[in-house]
Each structure stands twice: as C-alpha cells, then as structure tokens.
Amino acid sequence: MNIKLIYTVVMAFCVTMGSYAQGDAKWDFPIKPGTEEWRQLKTSKDMVDACQMPENVLNALTTRELAEICYNYPLFIDYMLANDPQFFINHLPKQFNGIAELLAREDGVDELANIFLDCIDDNGLLVANGKNLTRKSSILRVDYLENMLSNDEFLKHLSTKKIAILKEKCHFVYMSKRMSKDNYGLASLKCSLTFLCKLIDKEQSPNGQPGSTTARSEKTSAEHIRLALSAEELDVILATMIN
User: Fold this and answer.
1) Range of 214's domain?
2) What is the DSSP track for 2-54?
C-alpha cells in the first residue's frame, strides 16, 4: 500500500481530533494538519521544521503554556503510525524544540502531568471539557500523554509528590478502562498499565531512578499485572510489553 496515502489518511483523521484547550497561551502552531499550507509541505523534515518554536517565544511562555503546546504537537501523527511508540517518544526532544525546553525546566514534566490529571474526573474516567471521552481519536491523544509520562526521560523529572498523585489517579483510570474495554481497547489498557507499573517502580526504587528497580518493585509490578488482568488480556498485553 502507498505509504504516502496512509500518511494522508491518518493526517486527515488527526484533523478531527479534539486538542487540549490552550486557554491564554501566547503562541500556537502557525501551520497545522488539514490546512493548504500543511499540504504544501513535501517531506517529513519540512513538517518537523514547520513545527519548531521561535526562541523568543520559548523563553516568554509560562511552563503551563509550553506543556499545553507540547501536548498539542501536530506531529503526534508519527506516534500513531509508530510500531514502537516509545522509540518515537525517545526522539521527541531532538525532533521538537518545545519538548526539549519543557524537559529543561524544573517544573516542565510536572506541568505535563497536570494536563493528564485534568483529563481525569473523580471516577477515573477520561474527560475533556467535562464530557467523557468516547472518540477513539481523543483517547489516542491521552494515550500519547501517558506514554510520554511513562518514558524514562520524562519520568525521572517528576517530583515525588506528583508521582504519588499520579499513581492513585492512574489506578482509577486503568480500572475505568477495564470496565469499558470495548470503548478503550487493549492498546489503551496497556498504556495505563505500563504507566502505573512505571510509577510503582519509580516510587519504590531506592535511588529514585526508573530502570534500576529492586526485586521488591519488580515483584509488585508483576503481581499487579497478574492480578489485574484476565488470561486473555495478559496474553495480548504482555506480548506487546516484552521487548
């Protein structure tokens, strides 16, 4: 199948996606998917270049504004097309200067986490503007955010207080997704489960660094996966989690 055609179709799908409201943000992407200007971009490099932020704008934005812009990054489409989402996220800081600046700020990832928390109601349901998310496109956007926050490069910047809050909320989200599997799908379940396990491991690691888990934290994560999922879910999700 023609790769360019696939890219065009998915791009058209992304145009319909609900993005996080940027409120009083002082800057927005001048060229966006679905516009004639975007269609004139010939290569992936052209698209990446078109999304870069001017240095004077980067320095003027509050961290919250910057986090909202990063969440609404137009080339989120590449995450949707990636065989390995974490591979894409690993390269985000090199691809987009907004993400690089966010990681450089002490409160950058905490503000990104706040956006995730704003997407959760008191029952652990994903919401936008007070309404439950049911559209697959909007759910994918939040999955993208969960995958970013569970990436080691982002996770290591989260404060201890924020990790505790996220762990509690992420558990509610995960259980809500389990009760609505037909709406969210196993891929979305995997995002929340991975994020929850990474938060548990991060909290219990003696030096606070993800990836250096103790036997206890590894056991905690393994038990959580085993107890929370059915055999069918384990077969599907674990197959994709094991690299």
Assistant:
1) 106-241
2) -HHHHHHHHHHHHHTPPPPP-TT-S---SS-TTSHHHHT--SHHHHHHHTPPP
